[in-house]
Amino acid sequence: LDLLSQCWNECGLDPAKAAGVGITVPGMADMNSGTLLYAPFLGWRDVPVREIVSTRLSGPPVTIANDVNACALGETYFGQASSFDNVLWVTVSTGVGGGIIVNKQLYEGEYGIAGEIGHVTVEWENPRRCSCGQWGCLEAHASGTAIAERAMELMQQNGDAPLARYLREQRLPVSAASIAQAARSGVPEAIELYRSAGHYLGRAFSFAANLFNFGAVIVGGGVSLSMELWLPAAQDVFRRSVIHETNRNMPILATGLGYEAGLKGAAALAFHYRAKNGGSE
Amino acid sequence: LDLLSQCWNECGLDPAKAAGVGITVPGMADMNSGTLLYAPFLGWRDVPVREIVSTRLSGPPVTIANDVNACALGETYFGQASSFDNVLWVTVSTGVGGGIIVNKQLYEGEYGIAGEIGHVTVEWENPRRCSCGQWGCLEAHASGTAIAERAMELMQQNGDAPLARYLREQRLPVSAASIAQAARSGVPEAIELYRSAGHYLGRAFSFAANLFNFGAVIVGGGVSLSMELWLPAAQDVFRRSVIHETNRNMPILATGLGYEAGLKGAAALAFHYRAKNGGSE
After folding, report:
1. Crossing angle of helices B227-240/B188-212, nearest 10°?
2. In this complex, do B100 and A246 lie within 8 Å of one another by their Cβ atoms?
3. What ipTM score was computed for the predicted complex, to two decimals?
4. How far is B52 from chain A (nearest CA, A)?
5. Is B126 on the interface with A (CB under 8 A)?
6. In sequence order, what are the residues at sequence separation of 6 or more whose Cβ sits closer than 8 angstroms to the Cβ of residue A217?
7. Which residues in chain A touch residue B100, judged by CB atoms under 8 angstroms apart?
8. Which helix (H) or strand (E) holds A35?
9. What is the mean pLDDT of residues A102-117?
């Protein structure tokens, strides 16, 4: 907050004239009360973020939201999703999270936790254990973490396989990024790991499209940077598993906002707040 | 329409004073233009239903909607869904269809065909062919038709199995209803057929709950009359496949509207139309 005040001072901006302040939090947020309910990584519970920030800034209205939901909103205001009313945002990174836009508004669900595409079951026969405790979740089969874990298993089985040799020669750690590099260099297991992740992403996208007939799916997060490695497999299963041509032709796009998606999402939150209140606050 | 006019006359009602007329159609409807786009069973395409009916009635506003969507709306206005903002209606009958309520409004999707839960893939390893041409759809594994078809296959394999004997002795045709009767009489294959249908329904409901965090799922159609036969299996897989307690505790209910669900849905359409237009039309 000191940084924000300093920033405003340096740029000659007056907080009292700001449209609003948008804050994204890495956890479950109650937008109505402005409270961070639970952030597993930080171990924070029930933090009244809006109250704390409002008191310090004593000016513009403050809005908080889950970071993935904010990305969805940012994409709607500033990105490729702006031409659609109903959009699914999916972050594929350490985990897999989703944000849903219905009629250009954040859709939060009955109890505020809509968009958990990371935990739809995509594998019933040979499921992998998910960090949530369930089996066969999308996150357990297609996140960056899952890709790296499967690579690690393959290399433990055979330390002389092409992928193990490649990573050793290039002095690379085992990560979704290094495996993508290996895939681009033609290492077969790496190509297959991304193809498999794409297959499971396509399964989950097909559930979402059949149920919600979205205008588009926009993908962000680290794994979206390797989209060319997994999109063909995703499209293949997706097109065979959705009804109606509007679903079959639904665009699956990587975000154009890059690492700024979250930042632009926070800005969108401020706009969103004004729009919801008729611009009067 | 002659019937409707006659009915109004007999009841002493004045069409000009009616709040509206709601019409449900068994197919894809464009609510904005009031057109029946396509009804596979009737073979009708692009019928301007609202125009035809409006001209004849020359009075109240006319609204049309897909019959399953109308059921969802009827349940929201008159049924158990009224205490929730976000609800999934599922008809399990000859086929499987769905209607989605978001913020107590019909959610139609980007191109008007949201709610196709009958065609989410619930079986990837041993999929059955669906009438839509795809494989492993919920409709191919859990509709009344699917239950009857699987029973038929079992009886063709073994004409002396308990289910075949039961139906022969009771002089019953092979149908979802007769198989439900057999299950209630303790015939093992019949019990298993309903258990299997419930398992697949639970899988599909889990996708919907994780993605949309619905307040409730309400089930209608003939198979909802045998809910006690399939709900335990559906609940079992559902609770193991959704994240967060609000999803795990989500009620899965049979409609209380019975065969009137469609009729009440048509009435709800008329109300809905007024509400959307601020009651001014």
Report:
1. 50
2. no
3. 0.90
4. 27
5. no
6. A87, A88, A89, A90, A205, A208, A209, A250, A251, A252, A253
7. 211-212
8. strand A35-39
9. 93
